């Protein structure tokens, strides 16, 4: 019988939900069809994870609904997962995800 050997294991994948991962403030810019329940469905994606956005701005222009949602304390991976879930909502045309700090700097430079 061959002697027992240590089994080489592949390195484990990084835990992207781990609290030690870098957290940041992110901004979602959502363009969608102006449906009565869309705002509730979009915000419910955050509520289901126990998250409360720090800022929500919604504007309706005819048949188009524009939402800006700022969320603090997310890892980039988690923010991307939520963005993908927003994209999968019926009536959503597009979702842009960006670092909220970079978005603020760009807005200040555009205004100045």
Percent of residues in β-strands: 25-35%
Describe the oligomeric state of these chains in a short phrase. Answer: single chain
* Tally of helical runs: 3
CATH overall fold name = Alpha-Beta Plaits
Secondary-structure element series: EHEEHEH
Q: Given the C-alpha coordinates, what overall shape results?
A: elongated
Provide the CATH superfamily.
ACT domain
Strands, count: 4
**Structural class by helix and strand composition:** alpha+beta
Q: Which regions contain 5 or more consecutive residues with pLDDT less than 50?
A: none
Strand order of the largest sheet: 2-3-1-4
Largest sheet: 4 strands, antiparallel
Structure description:
The structure is a single chain. With 112 residues, the protein is an alpha+beta fold. It has one domain (23-110): ACT domain (Alpha-Beta Plaits, 2-Layer Sandwich), CATH 3.30.70.260. Helices cover 30% and strands 34% of the residues. The chain has helices spanning 38-47, 76-87, 100-111, and strands at 23-33, 55-61, 64-75, 92-99. Strands 2-3-1-4 form a four-stranded antiparallel beta sheet. The radius of gyration is 19 Å and the shape is elongated. The N and C termini lie far apart (78 Å). The relative contact order is 0.24. The model has no long low-confidence stretch (mean pLDDT 84).
């Amino acid at each position: 019988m061959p002697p027992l050997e240590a089994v080489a294991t592949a390195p484990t994948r990084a835990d992207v939900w781990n609290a030690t991962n870098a957290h940041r403030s992110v901004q979602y810019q959502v363009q969608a069809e102006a449906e009565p329940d869309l705002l509730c469905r979009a915000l419910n994606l955050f509520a289901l994870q126990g998250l409360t956005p720090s800022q929500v701005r919604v504007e309706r222009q005819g048949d188009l609904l524009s939402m800006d949602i700022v969320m603090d304390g997310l890892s980039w991976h988690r923010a991307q997962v939520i963005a993908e879930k927003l994209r999968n909502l019926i009536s959503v045309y597009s979702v842009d995800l960006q670092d909220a700090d970079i978005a603020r700097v760009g807005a200040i430079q555009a205004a100045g």
